[in-house]
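Posting for a labmate who doesn't have an account.
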Amino acid sequence: MIRNEKGYTLILVLIIMSVSMILSLGLIGGTLTASKQFNKTDNRNKATDLAEMGVTYFLQVNNSVLQEAKNSNPSNFCSTFTSIIKDQNNTRGYYTNKNVDGNNRYQITLDNNLTSSCSTNPNSFKVVFYSTGTTDTNEKATLTGTFTISKQSISYPRSGESAPNQSNFSKRSYLYNEASNTGNKYYYGDITYNDQPKDVTLYNTAWFNSITLLGGRTLTINNDAIFNNISNMSDISMNGQSNITVNGDAIFYGQKPVKQTQKTSICVTGNPYYVQNGVLTPFTDFGDYFQLTSGCQQTSPVSSWVFDNNTGVTVNYN
């Protein structure tokens, strides 16, 4: 019996060892599988991060090309923008691989339908692109990006622009008719006009500290006009049928004056601005302080091609 019991014990030990080995191999296999899956997920996330970097890069490229196209050929913006952004000869390198930290990289591909979108809508077109991120283990992720470039009206295009500097103006102490715009800028100081001719036309930018027109005199400025101090309404004054017309932008320095029942008449066909903190600020309540001359028509708002913030950038994670 003792010999048989020893045989049974040996068999039981062998069975236990076999089961333990099988379980251990299963656990090791499961651990290796989980590790592989984790690494694959980690690489996939890294590839997606790289693709997102590509999206950010291409939006920066777009902003640069947008300004270049507006400056070089605004009348044919869409075709000019398309020609630059496509970079067919690869002279700008927009679509080459961009390495990030070793062999991790991203690459941009432009959708081929961009050219046809110029003729679909003359005031708006879409740009579709693909950003592919690739890790150093060759894991890939591709994102599809879409944004819109549109032509929008800008009522006050010079808003935020630095205010004019009087040191850039030449001194002139009298008014007389100018024949054409010579590109000069004149500071007139304090002007009281009651001379001949009754109608004076200026073509160059004019800056007045104060101006008074008497006896039905009219002043037409076919350019921008700057008025140095609007805190005191008497600094811009006229009597009788006198009138000022500014066929450009009118820029006003000083604090806004107290609103008065009797308003000075002035026609501004461009945009009125006042200076605040050294920059041009839209004078949106201009009509509360000045009487617009009868029949004075403001020019249409300036149109400009811009990145459409209303639609933003749409990114699809494929």
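Reply:
Got it, the structure tokens are right above this. The CA atoms of residues 134 and 140 lie 5 Å apart.
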